[in-house]
Amino acid sequence: MNQTPLRHDWTTAEVEALFDLPFHDLLFQAQGVHRANFDPNEVQISTLLNIKTGGCAENCGYCSQSAHFDTGLEREALMAVEEVLEAARAAKEVGAGRFCMGAAWRKPKQQDLDVVIEMVKGVKALEMEACVTLGMLDADQVEQLKAAGVDYYNHNLDSSREYYDKVVTTRSYDDRLETIRRVQQAGINVCSGGIIGLGESRRDRAGMLIELANLPEHPGSVPINMLVKVAGTPLADAPDLDTFEFIRTIAVARIMMPKSVVRLSAGRESLSDEGQALCFHAGANSLFYGDRLLTTENKGTSADDALFTRLGMRAIPHH
Ligand code: SAM
Ligand code: DTB
Ligand code: SF4
To answer: Collapsing DSSP states into helix, strand and coil, what is residue 216?
Structure first.
């Protein structure tokens, strides 16, 4: 296989030039990078579970779970360990290699972290990869998660530094980067990406990908979410995003971070099968498998299986 050099010095002009390419030139380049680094007919599948729902202190303008907006979502306490492990077993049964647990917290409290650690240990005992997303972490919390065997920590940058305070004001971009750095330094794989369709510009999309690629290490997983518009949130009426722009973003992420797994994440409900196929062609090679994301609907597993068959793709537990 070709060794694509990993770069951490992308400039805005270069990345904007990628976005500006004719669509097929961009996809051709992305597919070339993809093939040099991955089997293009394989897709990794992860299953997601919201282990603690709603009531979050942060004000992320897209989120159904923020306590700042009335989205009609009912708050739920942290789930019981056994209930979570039952869901993990079911996910393993359908072939998921990674079990991702999300909690609507700004930062976990110690008593809650103790419970999450039991969940992580239980998932590891099933021989699955364990991923958690719990908000910001201090160094001690990162160490506890590392010791429990967490494989991935999800913490998205979500947008560019410049656009960030249009979306959330209860934390800063640097808070976000700091947690990511701590996680990386502890040797936990980072899963970090963002949301497209927040009303940001192409320059913001480029800026976000540059921040991700210019981290000391490229995140192992890069989830690219399309905004799911949630009634009651400030972004409920965000302008519709051109699907081609979403696909372009995946392609540019693939070119910039050639060895990272790029996950076609939220928003698949509003993509056609053809749209999803173009996302795979652009270099996406992972998705969330299951009927729900955290609080919103996802494509069902039988629809995904049918699509994989039609495209001659294989679902694999991990890369
Ligand atoms: N509270 C933690 C945090 O913010 O890091 C973990 C859970 S949070 C819901 C995880 C990610 O889900 C967010 O960073 C965002 O990228 C994504 N997300 C949340 N709501 C979304 C929506 N309506 N549309 C698309 N992505 C969304
Ligand atoms: C990520 O980037 N996307 C996932 C996962 N990481 C945690 C979450 C998507 C959430 C979509 C909105 C919802 O279901 O509430
Ligand atoms: Fe809370 Fe995460 Fe939702 Fe922001 S995205 S409101 S931090 S659950």
So the answer is: coil
What end-to-end distance do the CA atoms of the chain give, in Å? Answer: 16
Please write the tens of the pLDDT for every residue from 220-278. Answer: 999 999 999 999 999 999 999 999 999 999 999 999 999 999 999 999 999 999 999 99
Rounded distance, CA 102 to CA 156, Å? Answer: 12
Instruction: Give the separation between CA 204 and CA 187, rounded to whole angstroms.
Output: 29
Q: Is-contact 221 152, C-beta < 8 A?
A: yes
Q: How many CB atoms lie within 10 A of CB 19?
A: 17
Q: Which residues neighbour 286 within 8 Å (Cβ) at sequence distance 6 or greater?
A: 43, 44, 45, 46, 221, 261, 262, 263, 264, 319
Non-local CB neighbours of 144 within 8 Å, separated by 6+ positions: 113, 117
Q: For residue 273, give the 3-state DSSP assignment.
A: helix
Q: What spacing in Å lies between the alpha carbon of 299 and ligand 2's midpoint?
A: 13
Q: How many residues does the chain have?
A: 319
Closest CA to 262 of 194, 202, 197: 194
Q: For atom 6 of ligand 1, which residue has the closest CA?
A: 133
DSSP H stretches of helix in the chain: 12-20, 23-37, 81-93, 110-125, 139-148, 164-167, 173-185, 202-213, 243-256, 273-281, 301-311
Q: Which of 75, 288, 293 to mutate to test the pocket of ligand 2 (most atoms within 8 A of CB)?
A: 293
Rounded to two decimals, what is the model's pTM?
0.95
* Ligand 2 touching residue 267 (CB < 6 A): no
